[in-house]
Design a protein that fits this description.
heterodimer, A: mainly alpha, 16 helices, B: 142 residues, 4 helices, 3 strands
């Protein structure tokens, strides 16, 4: 056990990342259930306003910083060396440092719960001056700032490792234009992190200096700039949205191709669109600040609209891959299709709020949080499930049960939409975000009640997943060991090695002559014909 | 390496264009600086590759190379298991919390970080963990 916990092997570290994120996902999920319980009926007081502020702050922080993005880092840690035929990551000890710093950052943030005055309560954005007021929030806010700073450092270390590994550690023959799409998306994500996350560290350092050392970065009375924090935060914050979604675009690309039994349609377009999205996302940060009235709304609106184009290219390619394919509706494929439908709603409402006149109307309302829950919950979380079902056989030699998997999918998919569709209507009716209760007016009571029922259905979906893991683990003990490619029709190198892979990943690498070496190995006559 | 350079140069050019357009549409300093730094950082990486790694011959860059041709090539020193990165992570967190709460935590944190750096450097200096490419793939040389 000690050896495993201090192992520098990328597979152990990847699993450590993913296990930790699942722990935080459980905590964040419980917090969201408390939120939905509190809001199920008007004028309730199950939790008080201060406790509610802490709960939604911790829920948002955990999902953004400790679950969605880090799960992708775990997945990338596990898969990238396998997909490019490398024995390990470029800097294994830096990798081990990064995963522990990430874990410590999470526990530091949550340690605020035990501090005097409770945990941080200024939202996951921690806007100044709300977060710089000493009287309002105590040590919990300090621990939050420190935790986020540690998290930023950990994330930068993982990005350095991904970039170096992908650029320098590819196996002989694995040129960049032969890399699987998931690896390309991880490379785009790594570059995005390296550009965006230092800004977050600076924002946190300035918050701490303001709180403890009398600095006045954000205080106009002393020559500071009140929107400087927002600039710093969103220069990180908007690229972070793509840090959370680009790796999952890669997951969906892999899953859709394998279960359409066709090579990915538009490989080059997929790669270029990933970098177009990454580049454009660096120039849209202040679309979160339209209503401050001091940013160039036209510039940020235009740049935000442009992002829809490369994202549309991706949708076109996913549909093109499925078109006339022999679709196999396995659980990972169902989650991938769920991703496509949910993310479309999130994306289209994103284009809506990129328009300043609409944004002025729905800013800080439930419409806005419905939009980002559709992109990150309906998008990234569905891709997380798709990835778990798809690669679990590779990681643990366990193939999850299909019947329980489909029950998991349908409960989660129906629950998700029942929970979040009402939020759009609540937002249009004017319900602001981050309120701990609301009056019994208009449609708000029944819309909130429906949403809370949906959260319960989603929870049943998660329970079905946990039961599936337990059942499949037991079942795997009496099953034959899995083949290298248990789904059949895999394209990339991870399907050329055993389930789970040996310590150095491969006993023998197949020749790499295209972006789908395993398929070439299985169909030499067709590979010959193509070359 | 060509793809690497093209990738970084094109992104740097995009950042430069965005920076100029942003400045003339907003006259705002913070964002202009962000985009300017982004352009410089990406340009720096591309320039490094162009001027200092021009002759680099990576195994992954050759489309026709086989495993056999790279046989015996060193792929770096790898420590299989080590507690020091873990200790270092705790030390960094300890130091950061100390910056807010206690001088004692700052001093002990710095001492622990230095100790970890020393141990990590000592590990790197140790010979005996090289991995090499063989005909079948990467293997431990020891």
């Amino acid at each position: 056990m000690t050896h495993w916990l201090t192992s520098t092997n990328h597979k152990s570290i990847g699993i450590l990342y993913m296990m930790t994120t699942l722990l935080f996902f459980g905590i964040a999920g419980i917090l969201s259930l408390v939120i939905r319980l509190q809001l199920a009926r008007p004028d309730q007081n199950i939790v008080g306003p201060h406790a509610y502020n802490q709960i939604f702050t911790l829920h948002g922080t955990a999902m953004i910083f400790l679950v969605i993005a880090p799960f992708a880092f775990g997945l990338g840690n596990y898969l990238v060396p396998l997909q490019i035929g490398a024995p390990d990551m470029a800097y294994p000890r830096l990798n081990l440092f990064g995963v522990y710093l990430f874990m410590i950052s999470g526990f530091t943030i949550f340690a605020g719960v035990f501090a005097q005055g409770g945990a941080a309560a200024s939202g996951w954005t921690a806007y100044a001056p709300l977060s710089t007021i000493q009287a309002g929030t105590g040590a919990g806010q300090d621990l939050w700032c420190i935790g986020i700073m540690l998290n930023a450092i950990a994330t930068i270390t993982v990005a350095i490792n991904f970039a170096a590994t992908i650029l320098l550690y590819r196996a002989p023959g694995m040129t960049m234009w032969r890399m699987p799409i998931f690896t390309w998306e991880i490379l785009a994500t790594a570059l995005l992190i390296l550009m965006a996350f230092p800004s977050l560290s600076v924002a946190m350092a300035e918050l701490l200096l303001s709180r403890h050392y009398g600095a006045h970065f954000f205080d106009p009375q002393y020559g500071g700039n009140v929107v400087l924090y927002q600039h710093l935060f969103w220069f990180f914050g908007h690229p972070e949205v793509y840090v959370m979604i680009l790796p999952y675009f890669g997951v969906i690309s892999e899953v859709v191709a394998v279960f359409s039994q066709k090579p990915l349609y538009g490989y080059v377009g997929m790669v270029l669109s990933a970098f177009a999205i990454a580049g454009l996302s660096m120039g849209v940060w202040a679309h979160h600040m339209f209503t401050t009235g001091v940013v160039a709304n036209g510039f940020f609106s235009g740049m935000s609209f442009l992002i829809a184009i490369p994202t549309g290219v991706k949708y076109w390619n996913w549909i093109g891959t499925m078109w006339r394919g022999r679709l196999r509706l396995t659980t990972p494929m169902l989650f991938a299709i769920g991703f496509l439908s949910n993310f479309l709603i999130g994306g289209i409402t994103g284009v809506m709020v990129a328009s300043p006149p609409i944004d002025y109307h729905v800013e800080d309302s439930y419409f806005l949080i419905a939009h980002f829950h559709y992109t990150l919950g309906g998008g990234a979380l569905f891709a997380v499930f798709a990835a778990v079902y798809f690669w679990m056989p590779k990681m643990f030699g366990i193939k999850l049960n299909e019947l329980l998997g489909k029950i998991n999918f349908w409960l989660f998919f129906i629950g998700f939409n029942v929970t979040f569709i009402p939020w759009f209507f609540m937002g249009i009716e004017g319900m602001p975000r981050r309120v701990f209760t609301y009056p019994a007016m208009g449609d708000l009571p029944w819309l909130n009640a429906v949403s809370s029922v949906g959260a319960g259905i989603m929870t049943l979906g998660v329970i079905a997943f946990l039961l599936n893991v337990a059942f499949s683990k037991l079942e795997s003990k009496v099953r034959e060991p899995l083949a290298n490619d248990p789904w059949g029709g895999g394209f990339s190198l991870e399907w050329a090695t055993s389930c789970p892979p040996p310590e150095f990943n491969f006993h023998a690498l197949p020749p790499i002559r295209s972006e789908r070496p395993v398929w070439d190995m299985m169909h030499p006559e067709l590979a010959e014909l193509r070359s | 390496m060509k793809t690497f350079v093209a990738l970084f140069l094109s992104t740097a050019a995009f950042a430069a264009a965005a920076c100029i357009i942003y400045w003339f549409s907003s006259h705002e300093y913070a964002g202009t600086l962000f985009l300017g730094f982004m352009c410089c950082a990406l340009g720096f990486a591309a320039a490094y590759a162009i001027f200092f790694e021009r002759n680099a011959r990576l195994a992954g860059d050759d489309p026709q190379v086989d495993q056999k041709e790279r046989s015996g090539e060193d792929v770096g020193i790898v420590t299989k298991a080590t507690p020091w990165p873990v200790v270092l992570a705790f030390s960094v967190a300890w130091l950061f919390i100390g910056l807010i709460w206690s001088d004692f935590m700052i001093f002990t944190g710095i001492a622990a970080i230095l100790l970890c750096c020393w141990r990590l450097a000592a590990e790197s200096a140790r010979v005996g963990h090289e991995r090499v490419w063989t005909e079948d793939g990467p293997e431990d040389a020891t």
